[in-house]
Design goal:
By secondary structure, this protein is α+β, with helices and mostly antiparallel strands. 37% of the residues lie in helices and 22% in strands. The chain has a domain at 335-434. The chain contains 17 helices and 18 strands. The strands form four sheets. Strands 3, 6, 7, 8, 9, 10, 11, 12, 13 and 16 form a ten-stranded mixed sheet that branches. The protein starts with 19 loop residues before the first strand and ends in a 9-residue tail after the last helix.
């Protein structure tokens, strides 16, 4: 008798009926989650994202049941609120009022991960650089964002997988795709492939105004000129202060910005000769410092003091050099050096123990010197640790034959090569290094700003690191569960819009607090004061807010919303949205 085929089993389709319902005794209660959607929706509407998407996206297919712009905005709101996987976005949306996504209940069953992918395909086919430039230009005007100082940096988006089809830059449907490949990985995973994510934010609120995706093997120094050109388009001017890390400070980059009327501020790389010359003066105690800025806590306790060298110096190209000293950085440098020396001494001790073993694999002097170099050279520790490697020959004698030894027994001489390793710390050189702790040089072509103003401008550079932290922690940009590089680039564009939305929300709330004289709001656990509230804190605060619909047979439905707390009301009042949840 032939074997009967087992019926094919499939996972049940997710329930996409709107809301969450409960029934009892002729009554039913349908609940919808609101969360922070009304707050986020206001920012998104002011950004006119739907209008810009419809303007730049290719013409819609008549068979589309959900407009691409609607789908992309749904994906954006999901990233902001919940970060559900793509196959779960439809089910997530069904638990919220459909009108907040410009959808009808009948459209929800048509939302799945394939539709998300097609929306990303259509975004890739659009002119993404022009689209993001238009959005950023409107955001600057709508929210009155200052563009006098812009900060640029990059991070890596790390991928798990081979991505053979994306190993080289290519064209897909007329648009350029970047190469997912190996490069300098900033997540400390050199074994994994990556893309480079370049971001520029404003001094005013850390608002992202430009992003670009580059191939994973692109170096940072090759991104600045194209970025600066686009920022000139965005701002309509060339005199904004462009702040970036040491990769900007190449002769070619600085000359390009200077010759085109730009203003830049960066940190001078340690590899430059000017750095070595100034440190030589420090070793000779020929530099005097003057304090220019202090950082204190709320109780007035000094946390950090910044000073600058009295000597005015210029770079080889004639740009202004400002030699700065930070007391906090000096402590960090000293601690880091101590840890490096301790690790090196431990490694040398382990190597010496291996050399003393009878079964040591180190029998050649050259191999031992290579092992020592591997310990000292990466951190240039040979300046402070002196190592001597000496080859010693030990003579031993053994009886030539078997039996009891006597006066006629002959012996054979054997030579054994042993390698001895000794090391010592040069305490004088180590102590002398303290005079260069905490020193960092700034390079700029700006002549009008004071040393303190330039120092504070560079100290605002970490604001962009906070955006990268949001990207990798709040939004969990990696790992990326997509294979098509075009869709990946489109998804990274949606992440840029999410960063822009959160940054504007934070800026609006903090500006309102300053305007109304509110020093803090109790957003932290246990009602602790929060002086600089983040968008994530606000989103979490409204997470449990729901809208309910009570239906009783023979009566009109009654709608009501979760009663808001005093803190939630305070946040809404500050944002000018006192009635956002009233209905």
């Amino acid at each position: 008798m032939p074997e009967q085929k087992r019926p094919r089993q499939s996972n049940p389709a997710p329930d996409l009926s709107p809301g969450e319902a409960a029934h009892t005794g002729g009554q039913s209660l349908k609940s919808f989650r609101l969360g922070a959607l009304p707050i986020l929706d206001r920012i998104i509407r002011r950004l006119r994202l739907d209008d810009f998407l419809r303007q730049y996206l290719p013409p819609e297919d008549a068979r589309q049941k959900i407009a691409t712009s609607t789908g992309l905005l749904l994906l954006l709101k999901n990233l902001l609120v919940s970060r559900e996987p793509m196959y779960g976005v439809g089910q997530w949306a069904s638990r919220h009022p459909a009108e907040w996504f410009a959808l009808t209940p009948a459209q929800l069953p048509h939302w799945n991960d394939d539709r998300v992918g097609r929306c990303l395909d259509r975004l890739f086919d659009a002119n993404v650089p022009s689209f993001t430039l238009a959005v950023a230009t409107h955001a600057v005007a709508e929210f009155n964002v200052a563009l006098d100082e812009l900060h640029n940096d990059s991070t890596t988006i790390t991928f798990h997988g081979d991505y053979r089809e994306a190993a080289q830059e290519d064209l897909m449907r007329g648009q350029k795709t970047q190469a997912i490949t190996w490069g300098h990985n900033k997540d400390h995973r050199p074994d994994l492939k990556q893309l480079l994510y370049v971001l520029t934010v404003t001094r005013d609120g850390g608002v992202p105004v430009h992003f670009r995706v580059e191939s994973g093997n692109t170096t940072d120094d090759r991104t600045h000129r194209a970025t600066w050109d686009l920022l000139c388009q965005l701002t309509g001017r060339r005199d904004f202060l462009y702040v970036a890390d040491c990769k900007l400070a190449t002769a070619e980059n600085m000359a390009y910005l200077h010759q085109h009327g730009g203003r830049f501020l960066s940190i001078l790389p340690r590899t430059r000769s000017e750095d070595g010359e100034f440190r030589a003066l420090l070793y000779q105690d020929q530099v005097t410092w003057k304090p220019i800025h202090e950082k204190r806590d709320e109780k007035g306790v000094l946390l950090e003091r910044y000073s600058v060298a009295d000597q005015a110096t210029l770079s080889a190209e004639g740009y202004r050099l400002i030699w700065c000293h930070s007391t906090r950085k000096a402590e960090v440098d000293a601690s880091s050096r101590h840890q490096q020396v301790e690790r090196a001494l431990l490694a040398l001790s382990e190597l010496r123990l291996k050399l003393s073993s009878p079964r040591s694999r180190y029998r050649q002097l050259g191999k031992v010197k290579e092992a020592v170099a591997a310990i000292l050279e990466p951190r240039d520790l040979a300046r402070w640790i002196t190592v001597e490697v000496v080859e010693k020959r030990e003579e031993t004698y053994r009886q030539e034959g078997r039996g009891r030894p006597n006066d006629k027994t002959r012996y054979v001489k054997e030579e054994t090569v042993r390698i001895a390793l000794t090391y010592r710390i040069d305490h004088v050189a180590l102590a002398a290094e303290m005079c260069v702790d905490g020193v960092f040089p700034l390079i700029t072509n700006e002549l009008l700003l004071t040393e303190e103003e330039l120092l504070l401008a560079y100290k605002r550079q970490p604001v962009i690191e906070k955006r990268f932290s949001q990207l990798k922690t709040d939004f969990e940009v990696a790992p990326v569960y997509l294979q098509n590089v075009g869709r990946i680039q489109s998804l990274l564009c949606v992440y840029f819009l999410a960063l822009l939305t959160e940054a504007l929300l934070e800026r609006e709330l903090r500006a309102a607090m300053k305007r109304d004289g509110v020093k803090s709001v109790p957003l932290y656990p246990e009602g602790r004061a929060c002086h600089r509230p983040t968008a994530r804190r606000v989103i979490d605060l409204f997470e449990e807010v729901q809208r309910h619909q009570l239906i009783v047979e023979g009566q009109a439905p009654v709608e009501f919303t979760t009663e808001l707390s005093k803190l939630q009301r305070q946040i809404l009042n500050l944002l000018g949205m006192a009635t956002a949840y009233d209905r």
